[in-house]
Amino acid sequence: MDFFDYNKSGLMAEGVSVARIAKEVGTPLYIYSQKTLQRHFSAFATAFESVPHLICYSVKANSNLAVLRTFSDQGSGFDIVSGGELYRAIKAGADATKIVFSGVGKTDEEIEFAIKKKILMFNVESPQELRAINRVAKRLGTVAPFSIRVNPDVDPKTHAYISTGLKENKFGISVKDAVAEYAYALKSLKNLKAVGIDCHIGSQLTTVAPFIAALEKVKKLIVKLRKAGTEIKYLDMGGGIGITYDTEEPPLPSTYAEEVIKSTAGLDVTLVFEPGRVMAGNAGILVTKVIYTKESGKKRFVVVDAGMNDLTRPSLYGSFHAIKPVRPKGRAEVKADIVGPICESGDFLAKDRKIEEVEPGELLAVMSAGAYGYTMASNYNSRPRPAEVMVVGKEFEVIRKRETVADLIRGEHAKLELNTPASNKKGAKRGARKGLKKRGAKKYRPQSEDK
Ligand code: LLP
């Protein structure tokens, strides 16, 4: 359920006309509905209110600070996968003690940052990572809380790129190895403390069965681990519930909750969830303007000002996004490819799509773009990234300015100042040193402002 509906002014985002926002802010443009974000969070929270649980919204789906703040104001924690996401969450006002840190490639710097912020737990994805966290925690004179992300070898029946719970995927540790790793940590890694177990099998799942199949394996593991003296307080089920882009019928949070609650009855754990798409996906649209229409042989093209750099999902996964005219006029429908300005044939928002005949200057809304839209946007073809707007009732606010062409070259310079001419070594060296100093270039060291 979302708050993007038509009235006589055309498509509305809550109480504001999409055309009006586009006129004031320009296109391409992401628009989010705060009421929809809040509703999605509440639906999830209500579904689990009868059991101890923590919702950690998955930042990667949509990491705008105002989106994060909307969720943290509702009591959400966060699932992060990088130091950058941790930084964002903290800047948005998150409670760090409700943050879980997933991802296969955490660096020492990111681990240190997270330990210092006192996050709830690291979801550990390899034996080497476990030792790395122990090493960093020891250096900092502390004990770091962890869960192992178990790879249950369950098929989530979704797109191959977003399946994560199969043994051929790079994620997690097998059930068998997890037992050995927990035991080793208990005995020998004194700067670690097990607090839970984690399992995320994939994204855009449209049935509950794979979640429950994974859960069955994890439950057995919990019993085994507890017998061996490991404390398991949290059971993190990851994210993954799908949404309706087209004709999919994913489980409602309430249906998912019913099954999960039934399956975990008596387990004595706090359930942790990392939903991303189901929170943000249908709470956002991408608004784009038609630049040209053209025909080539039998094909029709609608060329719009948003490309695969702004919304990459159709190109990358062949995903479907509904595309609607912002001001429909009841004209005949045609079949067209809706394509962006990028110089690649893979640059499309829709292929062979039935759409009302549109003209240059008209606006189209690409629906269900609130998750993995802006966060996956790039500057390819040197295109500044779009603006983002949050609508709240009858008002709206730009929550991220449109990038400018000056933003595109931030941090770059054209003229090299290397120490080259051999005949003027001294002068050149001095010049080079000066050049480096002037631009503040130092030996590269990954750093975070908050350390
Ligand atoms: N937790 C972990 C460890 C994850 O890797 C993910 C998503 C989530 C939670 C959130 O999953 P969700 O509830 O959103 O399904 N770019 C792709 C989706 C990639 C998902 C990556 N991991 C897309 O546009 O479909």
Q: What's the CATH class of the largest domain, please?
A: Alpha Beta
* Helix/sheet category: alpha/beta
**Low-confidence regions:** 440-444
Number of domains: 3
- What is the first-to-last residue Cα distance? 41 Å
Output the CATH homologous superfamily of the largest domain. Answer: Alanine racemase
Do you know the CATH architecture of the largest domain? Alpha-Beta Barrel
What's the main sheet like?
Answer: 9 strands, mixed
The CATH topology of the largest domain: TIM Barrel
In total, how many beta strands?
A: 21
Give the number of helices. 13
Which ligands occur here? ligand LLP
Binned, the helix content reads: 25-40%
> Over the alpha carbons, how many angstroms does the gyration radius reach?
24 Å
Question: What percentage of amino acids are in beta strands?
Answer: 15-25%
Mean pLDDT: 93
Shape: globular
